Amino acid sequence: MKFYDCAIAPNPRRARIFLAEKGISLPMIEVDILKGENLTPAYLAINPRGLLPTLELDDGTRFDEVMAICRYFERIQPSPPLLGRNAKEIAMVESRQRKMEFDGMIGGSEVFRNQHPDFAQRSLPGAGGEVIPAIPGLVERGTQSIARFFKWLEIYLGEGEFVAGDIFTMADITALCAVDFVAWVKFSIPPENTRTQAWYAKVATRPSASA
Amino acid sequence: MKFYDCAIAPNPRRARIFLAEKGISLPMIEVDILKGENLTPAYLAINPRGLLPTLELDDGTRFDEVMAICRYFERIQPSPPLLGRNAKEIAMVESRQRKMEFDGMIGGSEVFRNQHPDFAQRSLPGAGGEVIPAIPGLVERGTQSIARFFKWLEIYLGEGEFVAGDIFTMADITALCAVDFVAWVKFSIPPENTRTQAWYAKVATRPSASA
To answer: What CATH topology corresponds to A87-210?
Structure first.
């Protein structure tokens, strides 16, 4: 197997933390998104949409999407469970993982890509070489999403020790990566969100967080 | 259990088709998104973000997100499998389901919501009562996403009989709902996409499609 990675990018990090929690190590191939290496002909031959991460199996099958890669490993190595242990937990992890992803990761991406000069022609990931011009209005919409992200993260942490209940799951991984990603565009956990502050201190110091 | 539904909306339809394929019927409570019933105090007490569908379990637990609801039922009633039968299929269904969702459903939503007067103050779903103004530039970006949706759907169908391989899965359900949704904003399967035309004729006539 091979894992096409980008060390600095927030989405590959979600998958790396997931793998580290399961104690799985894979050969990593670095592709630098900031330099646009994901849009070179060489990488587009691997992933025609230019997306990272991509997992390549030993039979040559390749697929992208963080959640697809995580589900693959959850199935072949269920322990420790990171996507829920029963139907209700599975649903809750999926629902909250998505909230953290859409509000935090995608909100952060809207703010970052739509004002950063290097992304002026690629405001949306996954379009391959197609020009997707930046839309300045998305900076404001992304800012609203990030506020929603922090609001809901604090509410979820009032219901359990972790984002989707009483055990650490993928919802925590995505939330952690989103907190660190939105710091790129100068947002941070509001001081009054004390549950989130305490949760962050705990999850950001797990060994997996440095993966 | 209760299923908070909106008969006309494309996302609740994805879950209804999934349930119909499994032969599961649930009490449905209609909430009309077009009339804004999902943003009334009564519904915001059920789902504070105003999202549909929402599933309510007998113990009172509620969760939203189509994929969370589908994963719940896939776990409690695995047959017929709609999210993959082994690790590789599970990953492929997730990856392609997401492509059909992001390009087709979300692309369609960007075109629809950012030009429809009724959505001028709620261009993004899931923000509860918060004002999210329409962004005209998203109509063009959504149009590009819909083109990408049709392009990739045709490519996927060149690799197998269905969107994620040789069996009907959630990736087909999302793609079917996206094709029908983007018709609202006057997009249709390009005539030269013959595999997609044949696939649509087949999936749109399954009994579940009218759910």
So the answer is: Glutathione S-transferase Yfyf (Class Pi); Chain A, domain 2 (1.20.1050)
Q: What is the ipTM of this complex?
A: 0.97
Cβ of B90 and A72 within 8 Å? yes
Q: Which of B76, B90, B141 sits opposite A87 (nearest CB)?
A: B76
Q: Are the Cβ atoms of A72 and B55 closer than 8 angstroms?
A: no
pTM for this entry: 0.97
R_g of chain A computed on alpha carbons: 17
CATH architecture of B87-206: Up-down Bundle (1.20)
- Alpha-carbon distance values, A20 to A76, A95, A181, A200, B201 (Å): 15, 23, 19, 18, 45
Contact between B72 and A65 using a beta-carbon 8 Å cutoff: no
pLDDT category at A202 given cuts 50, 70, 90 is very high
How far lies B1's CA from each of B11, B54, B72, in Å? Answer: 19, 11, 12
- Provide the 8-state DSSP code for A3: E
pLDDT at B98: 98
Q: State whether CATH 3.40.30.10 applies to domain A2-76.
A: yes
**A165 DSSP β-pair partners:** A162
pLDDT mean values, one per 10 residues, chain B (211 residues): 97 98 98 92 96 97 98 98 98 98 98 93 89 95 98 98 98 98 98 98 98 94
Q: Give me the residue spans of the domains in chain B.
A: 2-76, 87-206
